[in-house]
Amino acid sequence: MTIKSADLEVLATRRSQYPEGANAEFLLVGRSNVGKSSFINTLLNRKNLAHTSSRPGKTQTLNFYCVNNEFYLIDVPGYGYANVDKKTQQKFGMMIEEYLEKRTQLRRVFMLVDFRIKPTEDDLLMYNFLKYYNLPVTIIATKADKIGGSKKEKCLRQIMDTIDLVVGDDIIVFSSVTKLGREEVLKKIHAGKNCG
Ligand code: GTP
Ligand code: MG
Fold this sequence. Notes:
Helices cover 32% and strands 22% of the residues. With 196 residues, it is α/β, with parallel strands linked by helices. Strands 1-3-4-2-5-6-7 form a seven-stranded mixed beta sheet, with helices on both faces. The longest helix has 16 residues, at 86-101. The chain starts with 5 loop residues before the first strand and ends with a helix. The model has no long low-confidence stretch (mean pLDDT 94).
């Protein structure tokens, strides 16, 4: 799939603001600072279309990126960071829940975890929450550039042993620095956007 166009079309905090129309949608979720916004920039070959930061809590709304006038990638606030206050975290959680409850355009969720770190309690809660809604999930094990070859197998096993993946769900090892996994993700999107 070639990326011909990509625009940030809508910043939403509630349902009435979501884009209209039937375009397929792909949602990103994951801990704050895990690299969701960087993932979008890498997929779309754009340096800073989605704003990134080394400080957690950068993304504060549901950001709908329209790609090729054909589908949306949706960047969302991260969860699970102790220094983002409780009230704000709750607000973010409700925003995502409101979206997930009934969004028929949603085809697949990309759940980002840090390749080097054992998935946290928050990650497990999120995965189970997505499964409650019967959503297909691809785990993106990101920041893969940060670990050497010999440790990769062990890190992959750590994720697989912690998150009990449902049949049909899968894992893609990814890096926004080397672009590892980019083509594989684009293939997933291509396959997902025409079904459902
Ligand atoms: P929130 O918006 O706070 O939820 O964070 P986010 O998940 O959108 O993370 P963001 O993309 O802003 O990235 C956080 C930090 O991690 C930034 O400093 C990025 O440069 C860095 N980062 C993201 N992806 C990668 C990666 O694949 N490799 C490396 N080495 N760094 C990465
Ligand atoms: Mg972000």
